[in-house]
Amino acid sequence: MPTPRILGLSASLRNARSKAGAHRLGDEIAALSSRDELQAYLDEQANIHLGQFMEAGRKDGKPFDELYRNLQRSGGLKGLSNSEIALAAALWGARDKGAEISHIPLPDHFPASGEPQNLDELKAALRAADGIIVSTPVYFGDRGSLVQEFVEMIRADDELRADLEGKLYAGVSVGAKRNGGQETTLIYAMMDMLTLGFLAVGNDSATTSQYGGTGHAGDVGTMPKDKYGLDTAIGTGRRIASVAALLKVADEGALTDRPKMDFWVLQDRDGELGDRMAPFAKAIEAEAETRFLSLVDKTIRPCIACDICPTHVGPDGEYRCIIRRREDGVVDAHAELLKADVLVPALYSPVDRKGLVSVYQQFMERTRYLRRGDYVFTDHLVLPLVVTEVGSKEFLDLRMMTSFVRHHTVPVEPVVALVHEGKLLNPEEVS
């Protein structure tokens, strides 16, 4: 298996590492051979950073702005902040999966005061990586300003954006409370990176396949105490490394046949979605075998949240949900759902709801048995598709992305086809 290169980007202005100390971090992590060694290392680095805070003025009760200036003069060679600890855990997970790892602190390039620095160096590192992991503190349920500047740098550089298209992204966030906005932070950042052309992954199935690493650290040096949070970060590193390795294998070979690309029509009105999308599906038939699977004409019962999902251990081809009524749409479609290589959940969103049929929410609930069995859709590419009339205000692209990433899939930027007064406004973008 080829060796993928994973770059970690720490995005906190309270980073302990900078310059030479930041570059040493990858070597320090690579030297840790077990989860126990990682834990001991993170405990040690957190205590070092707490000591740096004490010496910088915390023990004397100095105001934080003075304390912060003193910290900036400490050299940046050792210790780890909470966000860096979460990133270190993710990088260790990537290294444990066989990846080559490196680390760049974003404050080195986007300082708190002054203009961005040495961006060519940062851009070169991004181009050389197969995937990136971004770690950020949580601010009101969203990313820190350093991540925002990083995203804007890519948006403003057409050449860089083209070079990064198809690379992998994963995120890690650290909040001061257990439910402090970590997941919303990861979701918003993931959507931004998808729109920049990245593919995205969450954490792996060992930590229930969510949106990335979620750390809880309410004070300096406390992140190592959040063992589950560290596990989600490690799972994020493992996930991005394993998918990056698969992509490198793909780069060195060729497909023997066309991938099967299934459009799952989950919300529609009188077949309008199929009519809109059929020309686009036909245009890619040379590259993919396309098929429309309409579920809106079937009755899909909602999930009853049973305690035995799936009902028993068995092969994927065997339907294993407790709901077994013959007229149920998921019962009928089970075998067909397993045939696709590329999943295209497709929804039509009109302003006038008269005649609209939607089974989306019931369908997502009922796929629970596929996820909780053995993550049947692992590593499948997911392309959410929404045909939306201007003004419908459903945010279906965001909802589909967040739901399907939980299936251990690899989302790509959703396609949103905009319709106004019966006319498709962005056909080139859709194509």
Give your account of this protein's structure.
This protein has 431 residues and is of the alpha/beta class. The chain has 15 helices and 15 strands. Strands 7, 8, 9, 10, 11, 12, 13, 14 and 15 form a nine-stranded mixed β-sheet that branches. Strands 1, 2, 3, 4, 5 and 6 form a six-stranded parallel β-sheet that branches. A hairpin with a 2-residue loop joins strand 14 and strand 15. Helix 4 crosses helix 9. The chain is globular, with a radius of gyration of 23 Å. The mean pLDDT is 94.
Please trace the helix and strand order, writing H or E for each element: EHHHHEHEHHEHEEHEHEHEEHHEEHEEEH
Mean pLDDT: 94
Largest sheet: 9 strands, mixed
Give the termini distance in whole angstroms. 34 Å
**What gross morphology would you assign?**
globular
Number of helices, counting only DSSP H or I runs of 4 residues or more: 15
State Rg.
23 Å
The count of β-strands is 15
Task: Estimate the helix proportion, in percent.
Answer: 40-55%
Q: Could you tell me the strand content as a percent range?
A: 15-25%
Low-confidence stretches: none
Task: State the secondary-structure class.
Answer: alpha/beta
Defining traits:
431 residues; 15 helices; alpha/beta; nine-stranded mixed β-sheet
Short overview:
With 431 residues, the protein is α/β, with parallel strands linked by helices. The protein has helices spanning 20-30, 35-58, 64-72, 82-96, 119-128, 145-155, 158-164, 182-195, 227-251, 272-283, 329-337, 360-366, 368-374, 396-404, 427-430; strands at 5-10, 100-105, 131-137, 168-175, 199-200, 213-216, 260-268, 289-294, 342-349, 357-358, 381-382, 385-389, 410-411, 415-420, 423-424. Helices cover 40% and strands 17% of the residues.
